[in-house]
Amino acid sequence: MASLNNGAIRLRRLCLFLLDLETVGAALRRPETLASVDAVLQQVDLVSDKAANNEGDNGIAELKQCIKRWTMSRWFCDWEECVEWLLFLPEAAGCEACVRDVCQQVLIEIVQLFPEEEAAYNATISSFAEGYWKRALRRMHSQSEYEESAPVSMGGSVPHRVSWSIAGDLSPLVQQVFFSP
User: Fold this and answer.
1) Per residue in 97-124, pLDDT tens?
2) Total domains, the chain
3) Per-residue b/e over 57-95, b at no fewer than 16 CB within 10 Å?
4) Residues 60, 48 contacting (CB under 8 angstroms)
5) How far is C-alpha 127 from the chain's CA centre?
6) Which domain range does residue 168 map to?
7) Global pTM?
8) What is the DSSP string of 131-169?
Protein backbone atom coordinates (compact mmCIF):
# COMPACT_ATOMS: atom_id res chain seq x y z
CA MET A 1 0.00 0.00 0.00
CA ALA A 2 1.27 3.42 -0.90
CA SER A 3 1.90 5.87 1.88
CA LEU A 4 -0.94 8.25 2.59
CA ASN A 5 -0.40 11.76 1.32
CA ASN A 6 -2.13 14.84 2.68
CA GLY A 7 -4.85 14.65 0.02
CA ALA A 8 -5.70 11.06 0.95
CA ILE A 9 -5.80 11.92 4.64
CA ARG A 10 -8.04 14.93 3.99
CA LEU A 11 -10.35 12.75 1.87
CA ARG A 12 -10.56 10.13 4.64
CA ARG A 13 -11.35 12.86 7.18
CA LEU A 14 -13.99 14.33 4.87
CA CYS A 15 -15.61 10.92 4.38
CA LEU A 16 -15.48 9.80 8.01
CA PHE A 17 -19.10 10.75 8.64
CA LEU A 18 -20.22 8.40 5.84
CA LEU A 19 -19.49 5.50 8.19
CA ASP A 20 -21.79 6.82 10.94
CA LEU A 21 -24.83 4.57 11.29
CA GLU A 22 -26.85 7.11 13.23
CA THR A 23 -26.69 10.01 10.77
CA VAL A 24 -26.01 8.50 7.35
CA GLY A 25 -27.80 5.24 8.14
CA ALA A 26 -31.04 7.13 8.67
CA ALA A 27 -30.55 9.10 5.45
CA LEU A 28 -29.93 5.92 3.48
CA ARG A 29 -33.43 4.73 4.37
CA ARG A 30 -34.94 7.45 2.16
CA PRO A 31 -35.77 6.23 -1.38
CA GLU A 32 -34.62 9.44 -3.07
CA THR A 33 -31.26 9.25 -1.30
CA LEU A 34 -30.84 5.61 -2.28
CA ALA A 35 -31.52 6.46 -5.93
CA SER A 36 -28.91 9.24 -5.87
CA VAL A 37 -26.30 7.05 -4.16
CA ASP A 38 -26.91 4.21 -6.60
CA ALA A 39 -26.50 6.56 -9.57
CA VAL A 40 -23.17 7.78 -8.22
CA LEU A 41 -21.94 4.24 -7.47
CA GLN A 42 -22.79 3.12 -11.01
CA GLN A 43 -20.07 5.48 -12.26
CA VAL A 44 -17.50 3.37 -10.42
CA ASP A 45 -19.01 0.19 -11.79
CA LEU A 46 -18.63 1.39 -15.41
CA VAL A 47 -15.04 2.60 -14.96
CA SER A 48 -14.08 -0.53 -13.06
CA ASP A 49 -15.16 -2.62 -16.08
CA LYS A 50 -12.61 -0.78 -18.25
CA ALA A 51 -9.86 -0.93 -15.63
CA ALA A 52 -10.44 -4.62 -14.93
CA ASN A 53 -10.09 -5.35 -18.65
CA ASN A 54 -6.86 -3.33 -18.84
CA GLU A 55 -4.96 -4.55 -15.80
CA GLY A 56 -6.66 -7.60 -14.36
CA ASP A 57 -7.88 -7.80 -10.79
CA ASN A 58 -6.35 -5.26 -8.42
CA GLY A 59 -9.23 -4.82 -6.00
CA ILE A 60 -11.73 -3.69 -8.59
CA ALA A 61 -13.60 -7.00 -8.54
CA GLU A 62 -14.04 -6.67 -4.77
CA LEU A 63 -15.36 -3.13 -5.17
CA LYS A 64 -17.83 -4.31 -7.82
CA GLN A 65 -19.01 -7.15 -5.57
CA CYS A 66 -19.39 -4.72 -2.71
CA ILE A 67 -21.50 -2.35 -4.82
CA LYS A 68 -23.63 -5.29 -5.97
CA ARG A 69 -24.19 -6.46 -2.37
CA TRP A 70 -25.12 -2.93 -1.33
CA THR A 71 -27.67 -2.48 -4.11
CA MET A 72 -29.24 -5.86 -3.35
CA SER A 73 -29.25 -5.97 0.45
CA ARG A 74 -29.15 -2.32 1.63
CA TRP A 75 -27.31 -3.40 4.77
CA PHE A 76 -25.24 -0.68 6.37
CA CYS A 77 -22.22 -3.00 6.66
CA ASP A 78 -22.20 -3.29 2.85
CA TRP A 79 -22.39 0.50 2.60
CA GLU A 80 -19.40 0.80 4.95
CA GLU A 81 -17.46 -1.69 2.86
CA CYS A 82 -18.19 0.28 -0.33
CA VAL A 83 -16.90 3.47 1.28
CA GLU A 84 -13.79 1.69 2.57
CA TRP A 85 -13.03 0.22 -0.86
CA LEU A 86 -13.53 3.63 -2.47
CA LEU A 87 -11.02 5.05 0.02
CA PHE A 88 -8.59 2.13 -0.23
CA LEU A 89 -8.27 1.71 -4.00
CA PRO A 90 -6.79 5.17 -4.71
CA GLU A 91 -4.27 4.59 -1.90
CA ALA A 92 -3.21 1.16 -3.15
CA ALA A 93 0.10 0.82 -4.96
CA GLY A 94 -0.36 0.27 -8.68
CA CYS A 95 -3.79 1.85 -8.88
CA GLU A 96 -4.55 3.25 -12.32
CA ALA A 97 -4.96 7.01 -12.44
CA CYS A 98 -8.45 6.71 -13.96
CA VAL A 99 -9.60 4.46 -11.10
CA ARG A 100 -8.04 6.77 -8.51
CA ASP A 101 -9.70 9.83 -10.01
CA VAL A 102 -13.11 8.18 -10.30
CA CYS A 103 -13.03 6.78 -6.76
CA GLN A 104 -12.12 10.18 -5.35
CA GLN A 105 -14.74 11.95 -7.47
CA VAL A 106 -17.43 9.46 -6.44
CA LEU A 107 -16.58 9.93 -2.77
CA ILE A 108 -16.81 13.70 -3.14
CA GLU A 109 -20.17 13.38 -4.93
CA ILE A 110 -21.46 11.07 -2.20
CA VAL A 111 -20.35 13.53 0.49
CA GLN A 112 -22.27 16.26 -1.35
CA LEU A 113 -25.44 14.15 -1.12
CA PHE A 114 -25.37 14.35 2.69
CA PRO A 115 -24.77 17.99 3.73
CA GLU A 116 -27.14 17.91 6.74
CA GLU A 117 -25.73 14.61 7.97
CA GLU A 118 -22.17 15.90 7.64
CA ALA A 119 -23.02 19.02 9.64
CA ALA A 120 -24.80 17.00 12.34
CA TYR A 121 -21.88 14.56 12.60
CA ASN A 122 -19.29 17.34 12.79
CA ALA A 123 -21.31 19.18 15.46
CA THR A 124 -21.59 16.01 17.53
CA ILE A 125 -17.92 15.18 17.20
CA SER A 126 -16.74 18.68 18.09
CA SER A 127 -18.96 18.89 21.16
CA PHE A 128 -17.90 15.39 22.24
CA ALA A 129 -14.21 16.20 21.73
CA GLU A 130 -14.51 19.47 23.63
CA GLY A 131 -16.27 17.78 26.55
CA TYR A 132 -13.85 14.86 26.51
CA TRP A 133 -10.77 17.06 26.76
CA LYS A 134 -12.32 19.23 29.48
CA ARG A 135 -13.04 16.10 31.54
CA ALA A 136 -9.58 14.71 30.81
CA LEU A 137 -7.86 17.92 31.93
CA ARG A 138 -9.95 18.03 35.10
CA ARG A 139 -9.01 14.42 35.91
CA MET A 140 -5.36 15.15 35.15
CA HIS A 141 -5.33 18.15 37.50
CA SER A 142 -7.21 16.33 40.25
CA GLN A 143 -4.77 13.42 40.08
CA SER A 144 -1.62 15.47 39.63
CA GLU A 145 -0.60 14.97 43.25
CA TYR A 146 -0.45 11.20 42.70
CA GLU A 147 2.40 9.55 40.86
CA GLU A 148 0.16 6.82 39.47
CA SER A 149 -3.52 6.45 38.82
CA ALA A 150 -5.62 5.35 41.74
CA PRO A 151 -6.66 1.69 41.92
CA VAL A 152 -10.12 1.05 40.55
CA SER A 153 -12.22 -1.98 41.44
CA MET A 154 -13.99 -3.59 38.49
CA GLY A 155 -16.56 -5.47 40.49
CA GLY A 156 -14.07 -8.06 41.67
CA SER A 157 -11.72 -8.20 44.60
CA VAL A 158 -8.61 -7.30 42.57
CA PRO A 159 -8.02 -3.57 42.07
CA HIS A 160 -6.93 -2.43 38.61
CA ARG A 161 -5.06 0.67 37.59
CA VAL A 162 -6.86 2.76 34.98
CA SER A 163 -5.32 5.65 33.11
CA TRP A 164 -6.93 9.02 33.88
CA SER A 165 -7.31 9.73 30.17
CA ILE A 166 -9.89 7.03 29.56
CA ALA A 167 -11.23 5.90 32.92
CA GLY A 168 -14.02 8.45 33.15
CA ASP A 169 -15.31 7.79 29.63
CA LEU A 170 -15.68 4.01 29.75
CA SER A 171 -18.80 2.31 31.02
CA PRO A 172 -18.30 -0.23 33.84
CA LEU A 173 -19.02 -3.11 31.44
CA VAL A 174 -16.35 -1.93 28.99
CA GLN A 175 -13.90 -1.40 31.82
CA GLN A 176 -14.59 -4.91 33.05
CA VAL A 177 -13.97 -6.44 29.62
CA PHE A 178 -10.73 -4.59 28.92
CA PHE A 179 -9.22 -4.40 32.38
CA SER A 180 -10.12 -7.80 33.83
CA PRO A 181 -7.16 -9.93 34.93
Assistant:
1) 888 888 899 999 999 999 999 998 888 8
2) 2
3) ebbbeebbebbebbbeeeebebbbbbbbbbbbbbbeeeb
4) yes
5) 18
6) 143-179
7) 0.65
8) HHHHHHHHHHHHTTTSSSPPEEE-SSSSEEE--HHHHTT
